[in-house]
Specification:
With 209 residues, this protein is mainly α. Helices cover 78% and strands 0% of the residues.
């Protein structure tokens, strides 16, 4: 329908508006830029949520393919790194769409889309490594695990039968070390919980009245 076609094309327009605003105001302060990004991010979050709903319908998915909306959602992750709600919205939609070959083909059409996804993984993994090395960093954030579960799910779908993508993640985008850091942190935490399970549960129980 025309409504579905229009909704599928909206994020591209938002991205163009963001680019024009950024170029048109080269003297804008960092505070102004951050404010604009936050406002645009809030709009895009709602638009992405609409697209996720549209993707539930077969005709809607055809429109999303026509407008290459999955590529737009990958691209949005880079300029809006400071808006975790937007990253989550995009990662949820892309993860769902990556289950289908036509959308995987679109993501694979340009290396930058895979790179945008991998950058999220690398950023979280590097923060994890800093924490493990004893640096004073605030990690994980409230959104880290939800975001990582969807990004790794998508990257898994994109690398299962695609050797070029596997090589890109290893050689071009340096994902192995961040992946291993996250694996070490998660397995270490699981081991500690298993060993201290009763103690942890007891500490969480409310005090008797």
């Amino acid at each position: 329908s025309q409504q579905k076609a229009a909704a599928a094309a909206v994020p591209v327009g938002v991205m163009n508006i963001f680019t024009r605003m950024d170029v048109a105001a080269p003297t804008a302060s960092n505070e102004d830029r951050e404010r604009v990004m936050t406002l645009l991010g809030a709009i895009v979050i709602q638009l992405i949520s609409m697209l996720r709903n549209i993707a539930l319908d077969s005709n809607g998915r055809k429109q999303l393919q026509k407008h290459r909306s999955v590529c737009t959602m990958c691209s949005l992750m880079r300029p809006f790194k400071a808006v975790p709600e937007l990253l989550l919205a995009c990662s949820r939609a892309v993860a769902k769409l990556s289950l289908q070959e036509p959308f995987r083909t679109q993501i694979n059409s340009r290396p930058v889309y895979l790179q945008c996804l991998s950058e999220v993984l690398v950023l979280e993994g590097n923060q994890c490594r800093k924490l493990m090395d004893g640096e004073q960093v605030e990690w994980p954030d409230w959104y880290s695990w939800s975001l990582l579960s969807r990004i790794t799910f998508t990257l898994g779908n994109l690398t299962t039968s695609n050797a070029a993508n596997r090589m890109a993640l290893v050689d071009s985008f340096n994902c192995v070390r961040p992946l291993l850091s996250l694996l070490q942190a998660c397995t270490g935490s699981l081991t500690a919980l298993l060993e201290r399970g009763p103690e942890v549960l007891a500490a969480c129980e409310p005090e008797p009245e």
